[in-house]
Here is the input.
Amino acid sequence: MKIRIYGFAVIIGTFLFGCAKFNLDQVKYEVKPNPLELHGDSVKWTVNASYPEKLVPKKADIVITPVLKFQGGEKVFDPIRYQGEKSTGNGQVLSHAGGKIKPVNLSVAYAEGMQNAELHLRVSASVKGKEKYNESTPTPIALGTIVTPLLVQNDERFSAAPHGYGPIYKTAKVSFYFPYNSASLRPGEKNSEEMKSLKAFVAAQQKDGAVFERFEINGWASPDGESFINNELSQDRSTAAKSFLEGSFKSAFKGSSVSFVVNGKGVDADGFNTLLNTSPVDNKGAVKSKISSNAMNSDFKALGSSVYQTLEQQVFTPLRRAEATLTVKQRQKTEEELRTMALENGDLALPEFLFAAATLLSDPTQQLQALEFAAQKFPSDYQPYNNRGVVFANQGKWAEAKTEFKKAEKIAPSASEVANNLGAIALKEGNRDEAKKYLAKSNASEAKYNMGILQVKSGDYSAASASFGSNCTFNAALAKVLSGAPTQAASTLDCGADKDKAIASYLKAVAAARVAGDQGVYEHLRKAIGGDASLKAKAKKDLEFLNYREKADFKDIVN
Here is the structure.
């Protein structure tokens, strides 16, 4: 915060110590800032002093002990030692010709009651070991502490995982296996369990009004034999599968724009390596060597009947196939269907659960129930737990929210929403180190705002103002006041939802006081106190209004 001078806020000490030997009444003290100011958790200030010539005897020793007195206690600082030019002590030497004392920087952890603090000095002086003076300053050299940063609002923001709701696509697959060197479908393949499941899927989707969009069919070959033949085989197998599927679903696809995409993939090399490595085949190196030399199927018989039979059954045969994947776009459910199914643990996709909880259900109990069902159905996804935590947080149930966020963190420790939410909870708990750790990991917009709150509480006001950016909130306006831009506070408040709050008017009065805007101070204070009578007592003792305490208009408002 920039140092500000409030009329007589910089107090020059002219103290009548009654000791002509030292003429200490001629020492002039200056404290900056004055009044003192809270920054983060502490109050910091600098004491400067100047003294005239012949003030300090050449063999004198002086000990000054700063003391901060406040309601409920006092803080006694370490003594500061000074000495004349010919003293044998170990303090800072003060010239007999006069001059300035090296600035003294002091700080103390803020405690309740320091708003009405007084800074005094206890001074003792001696010459050749004989005490000549021992007194405290009769009046304080600095008054109170400005605690405006304590106005920061705990309006931390929480991040819900986006529901991603939109068209829901489902897929079903079927595989067809072919004889060696053949692209003819055997009867058993046409009536396999996979084919029966596909037919049931198509019938169910047709009944529900789904749109059949795409049938992708990929053909494969085993690696035994020449590559150009295998490439042709893979293409022929995919074509054979396509012909069969077109005939099987001619009625179901009637009037549909479903497209068939046919691909010949050639040899399934990856599949071969996987199956060979997991098979009980002996001498796998010899098998791979023969494959590399384009060995024909019959060439593998030379490895022995047992090896050949195992290769055929467990490696080659599963590779001679066509795989077909049908993609359908499901009929979009009505809002009532989504609402009902979300509360009854219906057959919903995760985006549908999240969408229903976020937009169709307003009661927190129902939202939590729908998200609990989602968590049960999709236990490996962090989003239901994260969003349950947000529901609890919106109710002010911080412990329950933290439990859910921790569950989400176990599943997705790097999720941006989770990091922000745990950072916000840490802020609520007053754990700034943990809050900073989590918020720094998140790129959510809410995390940037929460970082602004943390920075205000840590005394980094310029950084806080940058973090709040264009937000039109009380905290954003407070950061502008604290960072030295009080004239921007009013416009920041007026563009947001906080503008009509009593505390917003109070902050406008503070901002006006910092630029000596008398009428603004009176106008905004009247409005603030009209909205919240408790602000009258606050304004009366608030050192932001020190320069107004003796003005009739101010007295009329706060008395």
